[in-house]
Amino acid sequence: MNLSRDEIIDLLNSEGEAAARLFERAAAVRDKTIGNGIYLRGLIEYSNLCVKNCLYCGIRRDAECERYTLTRGQVLAAAEHAWRERFGSVVLQGGENRLSAYIADIERLVKDIKTLSRGELGITLSLGEQSLDTYRRWFAAGAHRYLLRIETSNRALFERIHPAEDGEFDTRLQALHDLRAAGYQVGTGVMIGLPGQTVEDLADDLLFMRALDIDMCGMGPYIPSAGTPLAAQAVWPAERRMNLTLNMIAVLRLLMPDINIAATTALQAIVPDGRLRAVAAGANVIMPNLTPDALRKNYSLYDNKPLSFDTKILEANIRYGEWGDSKHFFKND
Ligand code: SAH
Ligand code: SF4
């Protein structure tokens, strides 16, 4: 559906009854275009070591948290669990690291996950900015989707929340293009309610995603993480950040009916049924956490991060054992 920037801004400002109508409309567009199935990706939080110092993130380089990297055995056990439970796919996510040993470890893990699941598990990676060569190696090993959020499409805001020495906005954009060139289904997304962000910025984020012709999207509310530089800055109340996230999901569904949109964990840090509300607003992907229990608390991107999700309530709609690829990716236009 084509919407002008002003129409998008109006829709993003929907409240109460108007918001409820927007969600119904978005869910109906999803159901009609790609069906009402919900696809699972078991989330394996590989490591909280990170070379970057993003000003908002609880596992940034300077954060004083207990660091861990999962062993090969732990990753493969989590993947095997996902395969036995017929999750369809796993996501390997972690802080950024570009050492050659690390790149080789990931390559091997991707191959091993493919082998142990007899090629049945789909593999999404979310391991930050890497070289085109690395993206290609991991794709050749068997990964076929990649999530790299632009975080905000407003260049000035991006520069305020990322230290200059960690790389520029243009480097991030280039990485998204490289992912496409390497053959991945490409996912991006933004945080909603960053200090200084406006509803106009959010409308531009949606137009950015459409212009980039993304296949998948994961976006969630910004949640201050105690001890990070950004946490000291004022933000909209949590309820507004959550409602705007739901509106963003719904408007994106109207703009890009056949992409995959995740109901992200951060929504559930604000209200217990946050992810269910996202599904009702047009999302079609859920990423239940499969990181070993004892380590989940250390992957503390933000405060109050939920450690689990009960899929039972969505049982009727979950499509077990299916990859649930982005329909958009296979469209020939
Ligand atoms: N290092 C990789 C993947 C891990 S971080 C990367 O940055 O791409 C995954 C996502 O967590 C980030 O893209 C960011 O949008 C989100 N995140 C980090 N800190 C957050 C916070 N304080 N509130 C909400 N989301 C946050
Ligand atoms: Fe590292 Fe990602 Fe956190 Fe930035 S958002 S500090 S890259 S884990």
List the helices and strands and how they pair.
Blueprint: H1 5-12, H2 16-33, E1 39-47, H3 72-84, E2 88-94, H4 100-116, E3 122-126, H5 132-141, E4 145-147, H6 155-161, H7 169-182, E5 185-188, E6 191-192, H8 199-212, E7 216-218, E8 220-221, H9 238-255, E9 260-263, H10 265-268, H11 274-280, E10 285-286, H12 293-296
Parallel strand pairs: 1-2, 1-10, 2-3, 3-4, 4-5, 5-7, 6-8, 7-9, 9-10
Helix pairs in contact: 1-8, 2-9, 3-4, 4-5, 5-7, 8-9
The structure holds S-adenosyl-L-homocysteine and iron/sulfur cluster.
Descriptive keywords:
12 helices; 333 residues; alpha/beta; globular; eight-stranded parallel barrel; binds S-adenosyl-L-homocysteine; two-stranded parallel sheet; binds iron/sulfur cluster; single chain
Write a brief caption for the model:
The chain has twelve helices and ten strands. It has 333 residues and is of the alpha/beta class.
How much helical structure, as a percent, in the residues? 40-55%
| Large-scale geometry | globular
Mean pLDDT: 96
Task: Identify the strand order in the major beta sheet.
Answer: 1-2-3-4-5-7-9-10
Q: Give me the strand/helix succession.
A: HHEHEHEHEHHEEHEEHEHHEH
- Beta-strand level of the residues, as a percent range? 5-15%
**What is the terminal separation in angstroms?**
15 Å
User: The biggest beta sheet, please?
Assistant: 8 strands, parallel, barrel
Please, how many helices? 12
